[in-house]
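hi! just following up on the protien thing from before. the input was this:
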Amino acid sequence: GAEKIRRQWDGLLAASPYSVKQLIPAIHREQIRQMAERLYHEGKTEKDVVYRPQFAFGKQFTGEVYLLYLGHEEGVIRSVDDRWLARELPKIARERTTLGCVRNELQEILKLQKNKKEQETGYGKV
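and the predicted 3d structure came back as:
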């Protein structure tokens, strides 16, 4: 699922039956700012702000799926993965968008802090 998200994200969104409204998070600028500030105070950088969807493969297994799995492992894994991804696409899209905004805000905070520090030390002046 994660690999498919990385490689085929645009195609997944284009082929999904969901409306744009279902894929965009209901979040305000102040919430993004607060999340970014919290991460900044925790010592995080923009590289730490990545959404990794959690997929519990075992939860998807029914007795019937397990029997199919025994004979067709790769096909069953792909099928279960595809169904999970189709069902979770709105949540994944919202989380990715939110964290993308938080990452950008964190970058801005880090830039401001770096500039502030340079001004205080006289470093970076020409």
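The mean pLDDT is 82.
Residues 45 and 116 are 17 Å apart (CA to CA).
cheers
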